[in-house]
Amino acid sequence: MFDPSIDYGLLPSLTGYALRRASILDFSGFGESVGDRGITPLRYSMLELVGANPGLSQVELAEIMGLSRPAATLMIDFWQARECIARHANEADRRSYGIHLTDAGRQALATLQQLVREHDSRLTSSLSGDELRQLRLLLDRLNHPASRRPRTKN
Amino acid sequence: MFDPSIDYGLLPSLTGYALRRASILDFSGFGESVGDRGITPLRYSMLELVGANPGLSQVELAEIMGLSRPAATLMIDFWQARECIARHANEADRRSYGIHLTDAGRQALATLQQLVREHDSRLTSSLSGDELRQLRLLLDRLNHPASRRPRTKN
DNA sequence: CATTTTAGTTATTGTCAATAACAGTTATAA
DNA sequence: TTATAACTGTTATTGACAATAACTAAAATG
């Protein structure tokens, strides 16, 4: 995908470009790593979130994942069709459902977690342990910029 | 977008997840940074590549960018409609076109480069110069894994 | 109660990319 | 030559996805 006879101009100097390429690299191998079945990183992350936070409503789940409510409905449908997620009636408010893993969903998640861990290890296999920790630290700094205003002498 | 009352399970331990979030963060601000007009990172990168490598054919451009030929046609149409890219007839092979920037395209690219540089700086503004260099180094290692097989004692 | 708000679904639309089919041109080879 | 194959670019078709709006049912408000 990288052609040494081509001039990439400004692109190699942009962090955003490097991030995008790494993200695509991760994404492109993901399906194969988890045995496909239409499982994308985003869909996997829904299973992960439902597993760790059982009983969320669909709106809550949508908000956390940055999805619109219709998109959440569809993704929940996806997992429900595979019998991994169930909508539980909420007796206190009959408009909403509590979203839960089924037994099959718990098992699917456990398997997926192992496959995803291995996938992630392959992605970063060219880095040493120290380098990986450093990379994670820096990415987290990008994702959660701590101080809006740089600390002054104070 | 990050809710401290939620358990994200395995996700925070995955480098792929951090990369995806950073990439989305970059992407989501990009349009505004460049004054929109439908300009996405990918479309910008086509302008950059055409500027640095004038005369490429559409198949060459598609290959470099990882696009299908129809997708390249559409994206070239996009820039041609904005009078930034021109298809030059190729006298040696009348099937193909040489893709070039127009004068307006060169000017648009120069403006875009400045805006994109500023956008990229904002993205990484929470890092020091050393940290940024380190991040770029590590990302490049992910994107271009140097040695398939770790060096043994030699 | 009547009205408004909320949860979830369905319908509609638009974007985007992939595949296949197509037209025109060039290369190959009988 | 001439016919066959391969290649460049476009168009048509399809499918995945997400966004918006419209809709139903069920609270909440007053």
Automatic annotation (TrEMBL), chains A, B:
PROSITE patterns: HTH_MARR_2
Domain HTH marR-type: 11-144
Name of a matching Pfam family: MarR_2
Signal peptide segment: none
Gene3D superfamilies for the chain: Winged helix-like DNA-binding domain superfamily/Winged helix DNA-binding domain (1.10.10.10)
Lineage top rank: taxon: Bacteria
Descriptive protein name: MarR family winged helix-turn-helix transcriptional regulator
Organism for this UniProt entry: Sphingomonas canadensis
